[in-house]
Amino acid sequence: MPAKYSHVKKRTTNPKKKAGATIQSGKDSNRHKKLPNHLDKTITNAMSAVSQLERAIAKIFLIRFEQDIARLFSTHIFCVALIHLPTFMMRCITVGGPSWVAYNADCEEIKDFFRSVVSMDLRQAGERVSTKSVLWSYTALREFALSNNVPVCRKRGLHSLRLLPHYDSLKLHMDSLEAMPHAAFTKPPHLGALTEGLEALEEACELKYGEKSPLRSTPPPGWDLQWRIKVRTGYERLSQTLWRVAREFDVGGYGCVLREKLTTKWCDCGCSTDHLGEVCEKTVREDEEGSGVRSGKQREWDGRGSGVLGWETEEEEDIWDIDLDFGSSDSEEGDGFGSEMTIAQMMEIRFIKAEREKEFGNAAFRRGEYQRAVKHYKAAHSIEPELPHYQLNLAAAHLKLNDWLEAEEACTKALGQHRSIKGYYRRSKARRMLGKLDDAVLDLRAALKIQPSNNEALDELLSIRPPDDSSRLAPSSSSLATSSSSTSPAPRNAGSLYDHLHLPKLKPPKQLPFARSSNDDKKIKVSSIPVSYEVPLMPAGKTSIEVKAKDVKTRTESFIFPSWEKYTVRLATC
Question: Which of 406, 478, 467 minimizes the C-alpha distance to 441?
Fold first, then answer.
């Protein structure tokens, strides 16, 4: 030992303690020892398999939801054409005469009114249809499981992990759904023609203006022997306009609550069908006990499960009015103000809150306070995400602030619900400032496809593709539809202009079997009637559950709530 350490006594070794230390060290090393490669790979593969299964189930539910909302809302649109369009047409006839609708069914005033009401209806469709769609799809998934001898718990329902051995079959079904055309609104073939609506319309016209009218001895001017063909043609063209407007909306933009749950809260966590089972299993079993398990298409995997009424029948429309609380759990807080409200009332209150934020935003926008307007528009959209016009307002504010990326994003969200002129036009301005000229041109062409007479979109397109720059022009796949009631005339050199922009030329209006009269040139104004609501004033710091209905004070407020019942039709004033 060196002299430096000679004063230190050398410690004797304790064999037992050393042995014990060695054993403990061995335990620690085993505890932190890396798993064998084959075990690590097995766990990773198992987690990946569960994740793939959850994604497949979520995708199946989402695709089937889009199919359901397209089918059911198409039934709703058919009923609107059958019940509400005759009344709308009678009001237009009262102002413009029997042939006015035939010549003006495609005018922007009518289409804008249709767009506002369809948007409000679709706002409810996302929640109303998603509830039934989830029930149907879960029932079909449950039938698939039972047919493969997969057990289903009576209380908690079906768990997705039990379907792992059958992932290939589920994947095959998902692939077949994805291969189908994107769900869109179209007239249900099993509902037939609008004969009843036309008969009711002709009878109303006969009683008010025809020979059987008790109000007049002679028909008014314009009501000649051809009035029936005029009314019939107008009704047919008005129905076609309604369907064209409905197809501007995309089912993929609705049902935000369901989409969020399926894509974030129910994905990759192994609990997708746990949640669905708890909600749906009780309802499915009660339905089976009440109506019996029926055979046939309703039990097939491609159907909608057992016990579902109205599959591909006229009874489907009844589903539109079913309350959304089919699977709600019993609440012990039943005395609250919120618990006494129906789903429709809660949706109305939600709309009122969103509209109030929008009005605050509009006031700030008019004052030039665009940052404040952005906050209010964002608040409105967070309250009511199923209405696209809040995003359009938000885009307008971002454009004022030169926030091009934010404006583009807001327009894209709005266009995901409704392919509107404002959405395409405002996104084109944002994309132009971002240097995305080709994308801006595509947006402007899409806007002109919706409204060929829109001079703002045409001028913007010309500023991007001026006549002296034709090197970057490319043929457009969009086709401009004819607008018989264009609010502005076509350019003087329309032919060469449209050739330069590679836009299809405007087609002449379709010839009708009767002459156009001076009354058919009248302009009308369709306005929704403001509706008064008793808005609850909640005490500060308390929720609707914590306050009893009798203790809540209300305030009367008026809002524009577009609907098929409350509106006026009058001559437009210059």
Answer: 478
CA distance 169 to 53: 11
What does the alpha-carbon distance between residue 429 and residue 46 come to, in Å, rounded to a whole number?
48
Residue 569 bridge partners (DSSP)? 526
Q: Give the 3-state secondary structure of 108-153.
A: HHHHHHHHHHHHHHHHHHHHHHHHHHHHHHHHHHHHHHHHCCCCCE
Nearest to 449 by CA among 495, 407, 506, 488: 506
pLDDT top residue among 296 and 202: 202
| pLDDT at position 67 | 87
| Residues 6 or more apart in contact with residue 436 via CB below 8 angstroms | none
Please name the helix (run of DSSP H) or strand (run of DSSP E) that holds residue 568, with its range, or none.
Answer: strand 567-571
| Contacts (Cβ under 8 Å, ≥6 apart) of 6 | none
Residues 6+ apart with CB under 8 A from 160: 50, 53, 54, 57, 270, 272, 273, 274
Looking at residues 538-559, what average pLDDT do you find?
61
CA separation for the pair 134, 138 (Å, rounded): 6
pLDDT value, residue 55: 85
Find the mean pLDDT for residues 479-484.
38
Token pair recorded at residue 13:
């070794």
Task: Report which of 190, 402, 223, 429 is spatially closest to residue 317, judged by C-alpha positions.
Answer: 190
pLDDT tens by residue, 119-144: 999 988 877 788 778 888 888 888 88
Coil, strand or helix at 63: helix
Give the pLDDT confidence score for residue 81 in this predicted structure.
Answer: 94
Give the whole-angstrom CA distance, residue 379 versus residue 353.
Answer: 9
- pLDDT, tens digit, for every residue of 353-410? 899 899 999 999 999 999 999 999 999 999 999 999 999 999 999 999 999 999 999 9
How far from 306 is each of 61, 155, 159, 311, CA to CA, in Å?
A: 17, 18, 19, 10
Q: Answer yes or no: are the C-beta atoms of 102 and 226 closer than 8 Å.
A: no
Q: Is the dihedral of CA 233, 234, 235, 236 positive or negative?
A: positive
What's the confidence (pLDDT) of residue 41?
A: 52
The single residue listed with the structure tokens 């491609």 is: 302
Cβ atoms of residues 273 and 137 within 8 Å: no
pLDDT of residue 158 exceeding 90: no
Q: Which residues contact 521 (CB under 8 A, 6 or more apart)?
A: none
User: Are the C-beta atoms of residues 447 and 418 closer than 8 Å to each other?
Assistant: no
Q: What is the pLDDT confidence band of residue 507, given thresholds at 50, 70 and 90?
A: confident
